[in-house]
Amino acid sequence: MKQLFIRNSVLIRNSKVLKNGQLLMQEPEDLQLSKFLKNIYKERKLKYPKFFKMDRLSKLGYLGAEILTNGQIEDENTALFFANSASSLQTDEAYAESMEEFPSPSLFVYTLPNILLGEISIRHRLNSENIFFVFQDFDAGLFVDYVSTLFSQGKTENALCGWVNLHNNDYDVFLWEIALSGGIDFNEEELKKLYLPTHE
Amino acid sequence: MKGVAVTGMGIISAIGRNIEETQNSLQNNKDGISFPEILPTIHKSLPVGEIKLSNREISELLDLPADHACTRSSLLAMLAINELLEKSIWPEFPKDTGFISGTSIGGIDKTEEHFFDFKDSPEYRKYIQAQHPGYTTEKIAEYFGLGGTVTTISTACSSAANAIMMGAQLIESGKLKRVIVGGSDCLTKFTLNGFNSLKILSQKKGRPFDQDRDGLNLGEAAAYLLLEAEDCLAGKSILGRVSGFGNANDAFHQTASSEDGEGAFQAISKALKKAGLSPVEIDYINAHGTGTSNNDLSESMALKRIFEDTLPAFSSTKAFSGHTLGAAGAVEAVFSLLSINNNEIYPNLNFKNAMVETNLEPVIAIQENDIRTVLSNSFGFGGNCTSLIFQKHG
Questions:
Q1: Are B328 and B160 in contact (CB under 8 A)?
Q2: Is 0.95 surpassed by the pTM of this model?
Q3: Is any Cβ of chain B less than 8 angstroms from the Cβ of A31?
Protein backbone atom coordinates (compact mmCIF):
# COMPACT_ATOMS: atom_id res chain seq x y z
CA MET A 1 0.00 0.00 0.00
CA LYS A 2 1.36 3.42 -0.96
CA GLN A 3 1.86 5.96 1.81
CA LEU A 4 -0.52 8.85 1.28
CA PHE A 5 -0.53 12.34 2.74
CA ILE A 6 -3.08 14.94 3.70
CA ARG A 7 -1.88 18.13 2.09
CA ASN A 8 -4.26 20.89 3.03
CA SER A 9 -7.52 21.01 4.89
CA VAL A 10 -10.37 23.45 5.25
CA LEU A 11 -13.10 23.71 7.85
CA ILE A 12 -16.20 25.87 7.47
CA ARG A 13 -18.06 25.70 10.72
CA ASN A 14 -19.77 28.02 13.25
CA SER A 15 -19.41 31.10 11.02
CA LYS A 16 -15.67 30.52 10.74
CA VAL A 17 -13.36 29.49 7.92
CA LEU A 18 -10.12 27.73 8.78
CA LYS A 19 -7.36 26.48 6.49
CA ASN A 20 -4.72 24.15 7.88
CA GLY A 21 -5.90 25.11 11.35
CA GLN A 22 -5.42 28.84 10.72
CA LEU A 23 -8.43 31.11 11.07
CA LEU A 24 -9.06 32.84 7.74
CA MET A 25 -12.41 34.41 8.49
CA GLN A 26 -14.77 34.82 11.37
CA GLU A 27 -18.24 36.24 11.18
CA PRO A 28 -20.87 36.78 13.91
CA GLU A 29 -22.30 33.41 15.04
CA ASP A 30 -25.88 34.53 14.38
CA LEU A 31 -25.17 35.62 10.79
CA GLN A 32 -27.58 34.06 8.30
CA LEU A 33 -26.04 31.27 6.25
CA SER A 34 -26.84 32.97 2.93
CA LYS A 35 -25.01 36.12 4.05
CA PHE A 36 -22.09 34.14 5.44
CA LEU A 37 -21.70 32.35 2.11
CA LYS A 38 -21.81 35.61 0.19
CA ASN A 39 -19.26 37.16 2.57
CA ILE A 40 -16.85 34.29 2.01
CA TYR A 41 -17.25 34.74 -1.75
CA LYS A 42 -16.49 38.47 -1.45
CA GLU A 43 -13.68 38.10 1.06
CA ARG A 44 -11.95 35.54 -1.16
CA LYS A 45 -12.43 37.88 -4.15
CA LEU A 46 -13.92 35.05 -6.20
CA LYS A 47 -15.23 35.71 -9.68
CA TYR A 48 -17.55 32.90 -10.67
CA PRO A 49 -21.08 34.12 -11.43
CA LYS A 50 -22.39 30.53 -11.47
CA PHE A 51 -21.98 30.66 -7.68
CA PHE A 52 -25.11 32.76 -7.36
CA LYS A 53 -27.26 30.10 -9.04
CA MET A 54 -26.10 27.28 -6.78
CA ASP A 55 -28.05 25.87 -3.86
CA ARG A 56 -26.46 26.23 -0.44
CA LEU A 57 -25.02 22.72 -0.35
CA SER A 58 -23.19 23.32 -3.64
CA LYS A 59 -22.08 26.79 -2.48
CA LEU A 60 -20.52 25.25 0.61
CA GLY A 61 -18.72 22.61 -1.47
CA TYR A 62 -17.63 25.11 -4.11
CA LEU A 63 -16.29 27.62 -1.56
CA GLY A 64 -14.51 24.91 0.39
CA ALA A 65 -12.82 23.66 -2.78
CA GLU A 66 -11.78 27.19 -3.83
CA ILE A 67 -10.20 27.90 -0.47
CA LEU A 68 -8.56 24.49 -0.26
CA THR A 69 -6.96 24.65 -3.70
CA ASN A 70 -6.54 28.43 -4.03
CA GLY A 71 -8.78 28.12 -7.04
CA GLN A 72 -6.49 25.78 -8.92
CA ILE A 73 -6.54 22.03 -9.34
CA GLU A 74 -3.44 21.20 -11.34
CA ASP A 75 -4.02 17.49 -11.90
CA GLU A 76 -7.06 17.05 -14.16
CA ASN A 77 -7.26 13.44 -13.03
CA THR A 78 -7.91 14.44 -9.40
CA ALA A 79 -10.58 12.15 -7.94
CA LEU A 80 -13.48 13.62 -5.96
CA PHE A 81 -14.66 11.78 -2.89
CA PHE A 82 -17.45 13.43 -0.93
CA ALA A 83 -19.96 12.45 1.70
CA ASN A 84 -22.54 13.82 4.09
CA SER A 85 -25.47 12.63 6.17
CA ALA A 86 -28.36 14.83 5.00
CA SER A 87 -27.95 14.28 1.24
CA SER A 88 -29.69 17.17 -0.56
CA LEU A 89 -32.61 17.19 1.88
CA GLN A 90 -32.65 20.93 2.51
CA THR A 91 -33.07 21.65 -1.21
CA ASP A 92 -35.48 18.72 -1.62
CA GLU A 93 -37.70 20.34 1.00
CA ALA A 94 -37.45 23.78 -0.61
CA TYR A 95 -38.35 22.32 -4.00
CA ALA A 96 -41.26 20.33 -2.52
CA GLU A 97 -42.59 23.57 -1.01
CA SER A 98 -42.34 25.29 -4.39
CA MET A 99 -44.56 22.53 -5.83
CA GLU A 100 -47.45 24.00 -3.81
CA GLU A 101 -47.48 26.95 -6.19
CA PHE A 102 -45.09 26.66 -9.10
CA PRO A 103 -42.43 23.94 -9.13
CA SER A 104 -39.06 25.66 -9.31
CA PRO A 105 -36.70 24.31 -11.99
CA SER A 106 -33.74 26.06 -10.36
CA LEU A 107 -34.40 24.17 -7.12
CA PHE A 108 -35.27 20.87 -8.81
CA VAL A 109 -31.86 20.59 -10.47
CA TYR A 110 -30.20 20.63 -7.04
CA THR A 111 -32.29 17.82 -5.53
CA LEU A 112 -29.38 15.36 -5.78
CA PRO A 113 -26.12 15.43 -3.83
CA ASN A 114 -24.09 14.49 -6.90
CA ILE A 115 -24.88 17.92 -8.33
CA LEU A 116 -22.27 19.19 -5.86
CA LEU A 117 -19.73 16.90 -7.55
CA GLY A 118 -20.98 18.22 -10.88
CA GLU A 119 -20.43 21.84 -9.77
CA ILE A 120 -16.86 21.20 -8.67
CA SER A 121 -16.20 19.19 -11.85
CA ILE A 122 -17.59 22.02 -13.96
CA ARG A 123 -15.54 24.65 -12.15
CA HIS A 124 -12.27 22.75 -12.47
CA ARG A 125 -12.94 20.89 -15.73
CA LEU A 126 -12.66 17.45 -14.14
CA ASN A 127 -13.97 14.32 -15.93
CA SER A 128 -12.31 12.22 -13.24
CA GLU A 129 -13.46 9.54 -10.78
CA ASN A 130 -16.10 10.88 -8.42
CA ILE A 131 -18.41 9.56 -5.76
CA PHE A 132 -20.75 10.96 -3.13
CA PHE A 133 -21.62 8.80 -0.13
CA VAL A 134 -24.47 9.32 2.31
CA PHE A 135 -23.47 8.10 5.82
CA GLN A 136 -25.04 8.50 9.21
CA ASP A 137 -21.91 10.21 10.58
CA PHE A 138 -18.44 11.27 9.47
CA ASP A 139 -16.68 7.95 8.85
CA ALA A 140 -12.90 8.47 8.72
CA GLY A 141 -12.27 4.75 8.12
CA LEU A 142 -14.31 4.63 4.94
CA PHE A 143 -12.57 7.69 3.53
CA VAL A 144 -9.19 6.11 4.22
CA ASP A 145 -10.13 2.71 2.77
CA TYR A 146 -11.82 4.03 -0.33
CA VAL A 147 -9.24 6.65 -1.24
CA SER A 148 -6.32 4.29 -0.53
CA THR A 149 -7.90 1.75 -2.88
CA LEU A 150 -8.23 4.33 -5.65
CA PHE A 151 -4.55 5.17 -5.30
CA SER A 152 -3.38 1.58 -5.04
CA GLN A 153 -5.31 0.67 -8.20
CA GLY A 154 -3.44 3.45 -9.94
CA LYS A 155 -6.66 5.27 -10.79
CA THR A 156 -5.46 8.59 -9.46
CA GLU A 157 -2.51 10.41 -7.93
CA ASN A 158 -4.51 13.16 -6.28
CA ALA A 159 -7.82 13.27 -4.48
CA LEU A 160 -10.03 16.02 -3.17
CA CYS A 161 -12.18 14.78 -0.32
CA GLY A 162 -14.95 16.39 1.62
CA TRP A 163 -17.64 16.10 4.21
CA VAL A 164 -20.22 18.73 3.24
CA ASN A 165 -23.35 18.49 5.32
CA LEU A 166 -26.29 20.86 5.43
CA HIS A 167 -29.68 20.54 7.07
CA ASN A 168 -31.99 23.21 8.50
CA ASN A 169 -29.16 25.65 7.72
CA ASP A 170 -26.85 23.81 10.12
CA TYR A 171 -23.71 23.21 8.12
CA ASP A 172 -20.50 21.32 8.61
CA VAL A 173 -17.81 21.48 5.95
CA PHE A 174 -14.46 19.71 6.03
CA LEU A 175 -12.35 19.37 2.88
CA TRP A 176 -8.87 18.05 2.38
CA GLU A 177 -6.44 17.02 -0.35
CA ILE A 178 -4.69 13.67 -0.57
CA ALA A 179 -1.45 13.27 -2.48
CA LEU A 180 1.59 11.01 -2.73
CA SER A 181 3.86 13.42 -0.90
CA GLY A 182 3.95 16.28 1.59
CA GLY A 183 1.87 17.01 4.67
CA ILE A 184 0.41 14.80 7.36
CA ASP A 185 0.12 11.00 7.17
CA PHE A 186 -3.26 9.96 5.80
CA ASN A 187 -4.82 7.64 8.36
CA GLU A 188 -7.98 7.46 10.44
CA GLU A 189 -6.49 9.00 13.53
CA GLU A 190 -5.02 12.05 11.77
CA LEU A 191 -8.19 12.56 9.78
CA LYS A 192 -10.34 12.50 12.92
CA LYS A 193 -7.98 14.99 14.57
CA LEU A 194 -8.34 17.39 11.66
CA TYR A 195 -12.11 16.94 11.55
CA LEU A 196 -12.59 17.49 15.27
CA PRO A 197 -9.67 19.52 16.59
CA THR A 198 -9.57 19.42 20.39
CA HIS A 199 -8.15 22.93 20.64
CA GLU A 200 -9.05 26.07 18.76
CA MET B 1 -14.04 -14.59 -23.44
CA LYS B 2 -13.68 -12.56 -20.28
CA GLY B 3 -16.24 -10.80 -18.16
CA VAL B 4 -18.78 -11.38 -15.47
CA ALA B 5 -21.64 -13.76 -16.34
CA VAL B 6 -25.31 -12.76 -16.34
CA THR B 7 -27.29 -15.84 -15.33
CA GLY B 8 -30.71 -14.39 -14.62
CA MET B 9 -32.95 -11.40 -15.09
CA GLY B 10 -36.35 -10.04 -14.15
CA ILE B 11 -38.26 -6.93 -15.18
CA ILE B 12 -41.48 -5.01 -14.81
CA SER B 13 -42.21 -1.85 -16.76
CA ALA B 14 -45.02 -0.23 -18.68
CA ILE B 15 -44.45 -2.71 -21.54
CA GLY B 16 -44.71 -5.89 -19.54
CA ARG B 17 -44.79 -7.54 -16.16
CA ASN B 18 -42.12 -10.11 -16.97
CA ILE B 19 -39.49 -10.97 -19.56
CA GLU B 20 -41.94 -12.68 -21.95
CA GLU B 21 -44.41 -9.78 -22.01
CA THR B 22 -41.54 -7.31 -22.38
CA GLN B 23 -40.06 -9.24 -25.30
CA ASN B 24 -43.46 -9.50 -26.93
CA SER B 25 -43.97 -5.72 -26.70
CA LEU B 26 -40.49 -5.03 -28.08
CA GLN B 27 -41.02 -7.41 -30.98
CA ASN B 28 -44.42 -5.96 -31.85
CA ASN B 29 -43.78 -2.21 -31.48
CA LYS B 30 -46.14 -2.01 -28.50
CA ASP B 31 -45.17 0.99 -26.38
CA GLY B 32 -46.36 1.44 -22.81
CA ILE B 33 -47.00 5.17 -22.98
CA SER B 34 -50.37 6.34 -21.60
CA PHE B 35 -51.84 9.04 -19.40
CA PRO B 36 -51.41 8.77 -15.63
CA GLU B 37 -54.14 6.78 -13.90
CA ILE B 38 -52.37 5.46 -10.81
CA LEU B 39 -50.21 8.51 -10.01
CA PRO B 40 -52.39 11.14 -8.25
CA THR B 41 -51.29 14.15 -10.30
CA ILE B 42 -53.06 17.15 -11.80
CA HIS B 43 -50.97 16.66 -14.96
CA LYS B 44 -53.41 14.21 -16.49
CA SER B 45 -52.42 15.11 -20.04
CA LEU B 46 -48.70 14.39 -19.72
CA PRO B 47 -47.91 10.98 -21.24
CA VAL B 48 -46.05 8.58 -18.96
CA GLY B 49 -44.88 4.98 -18.96
CA GLU B 50 -47.03 3.88 -16.04
CA ILE B 51 -47.44 0.35 -14.70
CA LYS B 52 -51.20 -0.10 -14.38
CA LEU B 53 -51.12 -1.80 -11.01
CA SER B 54 -51.96 -0.02 -7.76
CA ASN B 55 -49.78 -0.58 -4.72
CA ARG B 56 -52.63 -2.60 -3.21
CA GLU B 57 -52.77 -4.89 -6.25
CA ILE B 58 -48.99 -5.41 -6.19
CA SER B 59 -49.11 -6.13 -2.45
CA GLU B 60 -51.69 -8.84 -3.12
CA LEU B 61 -49.57 -10.33 -5.91
CA LEU B 62 -46.65 -10.43 -3.48
CA ASP B 63 -48.77 -11.73 -0.64
CA LEU B 64 -47.52 -9.03 1.71
CA PRO B 65 -49.14 -8.43 5.12
CA ALA B 66 -51.65 -5.55 5.19
CA ASP B 67 -49.44 -3.38 7.42
CA HIS B 68 -46.30 -3.59 5.28
CA ALA B 69 -44.46 -0.31 4.87
CA CYS B 70 -43.03 -0.81 1.37
CA THR B 71 -42.47 2.04 -1.05
CA ARG B 72 -43.73 1.65 -4.62
CA SER B 73 -40.17 1.33 -5.87
CA SER B 74 -39.59 -1.56 -3.48
CA LEU B 75 -42.86 -3.26 -4.53
CA LEU B 76 -41.88 -3.06 -8.21
CA ALA B 77 -38.42 -4.39 -7.41
CA MET B 78 -39.91 -7.34 -5.51
CA LEU B 79 -41.95 -8.31 -8.58
CA ALA B 80 -38.91 -8.12 -10.85
CA ILE B 81 -36.62 -10.02 -8.48
CA ASN B 82 -39.33 -12.63 -7.89
CA GLU B 83 -39.24 -13.34 -11.60
CA LEU B 84 -35.47 -13.63 -11.47
CA LEU B 85 -35.73 -16.03 -8.52
CA GLU B 86 -38.51 -18.14 -10.04
CA LYS B 87 -36.41 -18.69 -13.16
CA SER B 88 -33.32 -19.59 -11.14
CA ILE B 89 -32.34 -22.99 -9.80
CA TRP B 90 -32.99 -21.93 -6.18
CA PRO B 91 -36.12 -21.85 -4.02
CA GLU B 92 -34.49 -18.87 -2.30
CA PHE B 93 -31.29 -16.91 -2.88
CA PRO B 94 -28.13 -18.38 -1.34
CA LYS B 95 -26.95 -16.51 1.75
CA ASP B 96 -23.85 -15.10 0.08
CA THR B 97 -25.84 -13.27 -2.61
CA GLY B 98 -25.10 -9.53 -2.63
CA PHE B 99 -27.62 -6.88 -3.61
CA ILE B 100 -26.91 -3.50 -5.21
CA SER B 101 -29.90 -1.41 -6.14
CA GLY B 102 -30.05 1.85 -8.05
CA THR B 103 -32.80 4.36 -7.47
CA SER B 104 -33.31 8.04 -7.97
CA ILE B 105 -36.64 8.43 -6.21
CA GLY B 106 -36.32 5.99 -3.32
CA GLY B 107 -39.40 6.50 -1.15
CA ILE B 108 -40.42 10.01 -2.14
CA ASP B 109 -43.84 8.54 -3.02
CA LYS B 110 -44.43 7.75 0.67
CA THR B 111 -43.39 11.23 1.77
CA GLU B 112 -45.84 12.68 -0.77
CA GLU B 113 -48.59 10.38 0.44
CA HIS B 114 -48.17 10.83 4.18
CA PHE B 115 -46.24 14.04 4.88
CA PHE B 116 -49.24 15.87 6.27
CA ASP B 117 -50.24 12.87 8.40
CA PHE B 118 -46.93 12.60 10.25
CA LYS B 119 -47.84 15.23 12.83
CA ASP B 120 -51.19 13.88 13.96
CA SER B 121 -51.20 10.20 12.97
CA PRO B 122 -48.45 8.16 14.62
CA GLU B 123 -49.32 5.11 12.49
CA TYR B 124 -47.86 6.84 9.42
CA ARG B 125 -44.59 7.84 11.05
CA LYS B 126 -42.98 4.60 9.94
CA TYR B 127 -42.82 6.25 6.51
CA ILE B 128 -40.65 9.17 7.64
CA GLN B 129 -37.52 7.08 7.13
CA ALA B 130 -38.83 5.92 3.73
CA GLN B 131 -37.56 9.16 2.15
CA HIS B 132 -34.01 7.79 2.31
CA PRO B 133 -33.27 5.68 -0.80
CA GLY B 134 -31.53 3.05 1.35
CA TYR B 135 -34.88 2.28 3.00
CA THR B 136 -36.28 0.99 -0.30
CA THR B 137 -33.26 -1.26 -0.82
CA GLU B 138 -33.49 -2.60 2.75
CA LYS B 139 -37.17 -3.48 2.28
CA ILE B 140 -36.35 -5.47 -0.85
CA ALA B 141 -33.41 -7.19 0.86
CA GLU B 142 -35.63 -8.06 3.83
CA TYR B 143 -38.29 -9.60 1.56
CA PHE B 144 -35.74 -11.89 -0.09
CA GLY B 145 -33.71 -12.52 3.06
CA LEU B 146 -30.58 -10.95 1.58
CA GLY B 147 -28.32 -10.26 4.52
CA GLY B 148 -24.85 -9.90 3.00
CA THR B 149 -23.53 -6.97 1.00
CA VAL B 150 -26.51 -4.69 0.46
CA THR B 151 -26.09 -1.18 -0.87
CA THR B 152 -27.87 1.59 -2.76
CA ILE B 153 -26.59 3.74 -5.60
CA SER B 154 -28.34 7.00 -6.37
CA THR B 155 -26.78 8.94 -9.22
CA ALA B 156 -29.98 10.00 -10.99
CA CYS B 157 -30.48 8.38 -14.41
CA SER B 158 -27.23 6.39 -14.33
CA SER B 159 -28.03 4.74 -10.96
CA ALA B 160 -28.83 1.24 -12.23
CA ALA B 161 -25.96 1.26 -14.74
CA ASN B 162 -23.62 2.16 -11.88
CA ALA B 163 -25.14 -0.63 -9.76
CA ILE B 164 -24.35 -3.10 -12.57
CA MET B 165 -20.83 -1.71 -12.86
CA MET B 166 -20.25 -1.95 -9.11
CA GLY B 167 -21.59 -5.51 -9.00
CA ALA B 168 -19.30 -6.51 -11.86
CA GLN B 169 -16.33 -4.97 -10.04
CA LEU B 170 -17.16 -6.82 -6.81
CA ILE B 171 -17.25 -10.10 -8.70
CA GLU B 172 -14.05 -9.38 -10.63
CA SER B 173 -12.22 -8.53 -7.43
CA GLY B 174 -13.43 -11.73 -5.78
CA LYS B 175 -15.35 -9.93 -3.04
CA LEU B 176 -18.61 -11.58 -4.13
CA LYS B 177 -19.48 -14.73 -6.02
CA ARG B 178 -23.01 -13.70 -6.81
CA VAL B 179 -24.85 -10.38 -6.80
CA ILE B 180 -28.26 -9.06 -7.80
CA VAL B 181 -27.82 -5.70 -9.54
CA GLY B 182 -30.23 -3.28 -11.15
CA GLY B 183 -32.63 -0.56 -10.19
CA SER B 184 -36.15 0.51 -9.45
CA ASP B 185 -37.98 3.82 -9.70
CA CYS B 186 -41.67 4.70 -9.59
CA LEU B 187 -43.51 7.74 -10.87
CA THR B 188 -43.94 10.55 -8.35
CA LYS B 189 -45.30 14.08 -8.33
CA PHE B 190 -41.80 15.26 -7.32
CA THR B 191 -40.17 14.06 -10.53
CA LEU B 192 -43.09 14.69 -12.89
CA ASN B 193 -43.32 18.32 -11.72
CA GLY B 194 -39.55 18.67 -11.62
CA PHE B 195 -38.95 17.48 -15.18
CA ASN B 196 -41.98 19.51 -16.27
CA SER B 197 -40.49 22.62 -14.66
CA LEU B 198 -37.31 22.03 -16.68
CA LYS B 199 -39.58 21.96 -19.77
CA ILE B 200 -38.19 18.65 -20.97
CA LEU B 201 -41.39 16.57 -20.89
CA SER B 202 -43.08 15.98 -24.24
CA GLN B 203 -46.82 16.44 -24.49
CA LYS B 204 -46.76 13.62 -27.03
CA LYS B 205 -45.04 10.27 -27.21
CA GLY B 206 -41.27 10.76 -27.09
CA ARG B 207 -39.33 10.72 -30.38
CA PRO B 208 -35.68 10.02 -29.56
CA PHE B 209 -33.10 11.21 -32.10
CA ASP B 210 -35.78 12.84 -34.28
CA GLN B 211 -35.23 16.34 -35.61
CA ASP B 212 -38.56 17.39 -34.05
CA ARG B 213 -38.11 15.66 -30.69
CA ASP B 214 -39.45 17.83 -27.91
CA GLY B 215 -38.84 15.98 -24.69
CA LEU B 216 -39.10 12.75 -22.78
CA ASN B 217 -41.93 10.75 -21.19
CA LEU B 218 -41.24 9.72 -17.62
CA GLY B 219 -41.71 6.05 -16.83
CA GLU B 220 -41.52 3.63 -13.94
CA ALA B 221 -39.88 0.22 -13.82
CA ALA B 222 -37.77 -2.24 -11.93
CA ALA B 223 -35.21 -4.50 -13.57
CA TYR B 224 -32.50 -6.70 -12.11
CA LEU B 225 -29.75 -9.00 -13.32
CA LEU B 226 -28.04 -11.81 -11.48
CA LEU B 227 -24.27 -11.59 -11.95
CA GLU B 228 -22.14 -14.60 -11.08
CA ALA B 229 -18.46 -15.41 -10.88
CA GLU B 230 -16.83 -17.92 -13.19
CA ASP B 231 -16.72 -20.75 -10.66
CA CYS B 232 -20.50 -20.61 -9.96
CA LEU B 233 -21.56 -21.30 -13.51
CA ALA B 234 -21.64 -25.09 -13.77
CA GLY B 235 -24.72 -26.20 -15.65
CA LYS B 236 -26.32 -22.77 -15.77
CA SER B 237 -27.47 -21.04 -18.91
CA ILE B 238 -25.56 -17.83 -19.42
CA LEU B 239 -27.48 -14.91 -20.89
CA GLY B 240 -24.38 -12.87 -21.61
CA ARG B 241 -21.39 -11.22 -20.01
CA VAL B 242 -20.71 -7.77 -18.64
CA SER B 243 -17.35 -7.27 -20.27
CA GLY B 244 -16.91 -3.51 -20.21
CA PHE B 245 -17.91 -0.53 -18.13
CA GLY B 246 -16.81 3.06 -17.72
CA ASN B 247 -17.91 6.18 -15.89
CA ALA B 248 -16.91 9.82 -16.33
CA ASN B 249 -18.19 13.21 -15.35
CA ASP B 250 -19.31 15.49 -18.16
CA ALA B 251 -18.21 18.57 -16.13
CA PHE B 252 -20.51 20.86 -18.08
CA HIS B 253 -23.84 21.67 -16.41
CA GLN B 254 -25.96 20.55 -13.45
CA THR B 255 -28.54 18.82 -15.64
CA ALA B 256 -27.68 19.40 -19.30
CA SER B 257 -25.10 17.54 -21.39
CA SER B 258 -22.17 19.22 -23.10
CA GLU B 259 -22.28 20.06 -26.80
CA ASP B 260 -19.47 17.66 -27.69
CA GLY B 261 -20.65 14.91 -25.30
CA GLU B 262 -17.29 14.76 -23.52
CA GLY B 263 -18.56 12.78 -20.51
CA ALA B 264 -20.29 10.25 -22.75
CA PHE B 265 -17.22 10.05 -24.99
CA GLN B 266 -14.98 9.28 -22.03
CA ALA B 267 -17.41 6.75 -20.49
CA ILE B 268 -17.73 4.86 -23.80
CA SER B 269 -13.96 4.98 -24.37
CA LYS B 270 -13.30 3.55 -20.92
CA ALA B 271 -15.88 0.78 -21.42
CA LEU B 272 -14.32 -0.22 -24.76
CA LYS B 273 -10.86 -0.22 -23.23
CA LYS B 274 -12.03 -2.33 -20.29
CA ALA B 275 -13.62 -4.85 -22.67
CA GLY B 276 -10.56 -4.83 -24.91
CA LEU B 277 -12.69 -4.01 -27.93
CA SER B 278 -12.30 -1.59 -30.78
CA PRO B 279 -15.36 0.46 -31.81
CA VAL B 280 -15.95 -1.65 -34.95
CA GLU B 281 -16.60 -4.69 -32.76
CA ILE B 282 -19.80 -3.21 -31.31
CA ASP B 283 -22.85 -4.68 -33.09
CA TYR B 284 -25.55 -2.53 -31.56
CA ILE B 285 -25.85 0.51 -29.30
CA ASN B 286 -28.77 0.85 -26.92
CA ALA B 287 -28.52 4.62 -26.57
CA HIS B 288 -29.50 6.73 -23.58
CA GLY B 289 -31.67 8.64 -26.10
CA THR B 290 -34.12 10.36 -23.77
CA GLY B 291 -35.82 12.32 -26.54
CA THR B 292 -34.79 15.71 -25.20
CA SER B 293 -33.25 18.18 -27.58
CA ASN B 294 -30.08 18.39 -25.51
CA ASN B 295 -29.34 14.74 -24.66
CA ASP B 296 -29.86 13.29 -28.08
CA LEU B 297 -27.65 15.86 -29.79
CA SER B 298 -24.91 15.55 -27.20
CA GLU B 299 -25.03 11.74 -27.29
CA SER B 300 -24.98 11.78 -31.12
CA MET B 301 -21.87 13.94 -31.05
CA ALA B 302 -20.19 11.54 -28.65
CA LEU B 303 -21.14 8.56 -30.84
CA LYS B 304 -19.77 10.28 -33.93
CA ARG B 305 -16.52 11.02 -32.11
CA ILE B 306 -16.09 7.38 -31.05
CA PHE B 307 -17.36 5.54 -34.11
CA GLU B 308 -16.62 8.11 -36.82
CA ASP B 309 -17.87 6.70 -40.14
CA THR B 310 -18.61 3.21 -38.88
CA LEU B 311 -21.46 3.81 -36.45
CA PRO B 312 -23.16 0.49 -35.71
CA ALA B 313 -26.92 0.05 -35.59
CA PHE B 314 -28.35 2.04 -32.69
CA SER B 315 -31.71 2.83 -31.13
CA SER B 316 -33.21 4.34 -28.04
CA THR B 317 -35.84 2.07 -26.50
CA LYS B 318 -37.16 4.80 -24.20
CA ALA B 319 -40.10 5.42 -26.54
CA PHE B 320 -41.31 1.97 -25.40
CA SER B 321 -40.88 2.28 -21.65
CA GLY B 322 -40.57 5.99 -20.98
CA HIS B 323 -37.49 7.25 -19.16
CA THR B 324 -37.43 5.19 -15.99
CA LEU B 325 -34.66 7.29 -14.37
CA GLY B 326 -32.75 5.28 -11.76
CA ALA B 327 -34.01 2.01 -13.27
CA ALA B 328 -33.23 2.87 -16.89
CA GLY B 329 -29.74 1.37 -16.96
CA ALA B 330 -31.10 -1.99 -15.81
CA VAL B 331 -34.20 -1.89 -18.03
CA GLU B 332 -31.94 -1.29 -21.01
CA ALA B 333 -29.49 -3.93 -19.82
CA VAL B 334 -32.37 -6.42 -19.99
CA PHE B 335 -33.32 -5.15 -23.47
CA SER B 336 -29.67 -5.42 -24.54
CA LEU B 337 -29.46 -9.01 -23.29
CA LEU B 338 -32.71 -9.84 -25.12
CA SER B 339 -31.09 -8.43 -28.27
CA ILE B 340 -28.08 -10.67 -27.75
CA ASN B 341 -30.13 -13.79 -27.01
CA ASN B 342 -32.71 -13.29 -29.77
CA ASN B 343 -30.31 -11.78 -32.32
CA GLU B 344 -32.60 -8.86 -32.93
CA ILE B 345 -32.49 -5.11 -32.53
CA TYR B 346 -35.53 -3.38 -31.06
CA PRO B 347 -36.56 -0.23 -32.83
CA ASN B 348 -36.43 3.43 -31.97
CA LEU B 349 -40.17 4.19 -32.12
CA ASN B 350 -41.72 7.42 -33.42
CA PHE B 351 -38.63 8.45 -35.41
CA LYS B 352 -39.25 10.29 -38.70
CA ASN B 353 -36.42 12.66 -39.63
CA ALA B 354 -32.75 12.69 -38.72
CA MET B 355 -31.32 15.65 -36.84
CA VAL B 356 -29.83 18.20 -39.19
CA GLU B 357 -26.71 18.55 -37.03
CA THR B 358 -25.63 14.90 -37.19
CA ASN B 359 -27.87 13.15 -39.71
CA LEU B 360 -27.84 9.90 -37.71
CA GLU B 361 -30.61 7.36 -38.40
CA PRO B 362 -31.50 4.87 -35.69
CA VAL B 363 -33.01 1.45 -36.33
CA ILE B 364 -36.75 2.05 -36.79
CA ALA B 365 -38.09 -1.46 -37.41
CA ILE B 366 -37.12 -4.68 -35.70
CA GLN B 367 -33.98 -6.00 -37.32
CA GLU B 368 -32.55 -9.50 -37.23
CA ASN B 369 -28.80 -9.71 -37.00
CA ASP B 370 -26.13 -11.66 -35.23
CA ILE B 371 -25.75 -9.54 -32.10
CA ARG B 372 -22.64 -10.43 -30.14
CA THR B 373 -21.72 -7.14 -28.51
CA VAL B 374 -23.98 -4.37 -27.23
CA LEU B 375 -23.04 -0.99 -25.81
CA SER B 376 -25.62 0.53 -23.44
CA ASN B 377 -25.44 4.18 -22.32
CA SER B 378 -26.93 5.85 -19.25
CA PHE B 379 -26.31 9.49 -18.39
CA GLY B 380 -27.49 11.20 -15.22
CA PHE B 381 -27.90 14.66 -13.74
CA GLY B 382 -24.72 15.96 -12.19
CA GLY B 383 -22.88 14.94 -15.38
CA ASN B 384 -22.67 11.30 -14.29
CA CYS B 385 -22.12 9.28 -17.51
CA THR B 386 -21.91 5.48 -17.55
CA SER B 387 -21.49 3.01 -20.40
CA LEU B 388 -21.78 -0.76 -20.16
CA ILE B 389 -20.83 -3.45 -22.67
CA PHE B 390 -22.68 -6.77 -22.80
CA GLN B 391 -21.36 -9.68 -24.83
CA LYS B 392 -22.71 -12.98 -26.02
CA HIS B 393 -21.43 -16.01 -24.15
CA GLY B 394 -19.18 -18.37 -26.07
A1: yes
A2: no
A3: no
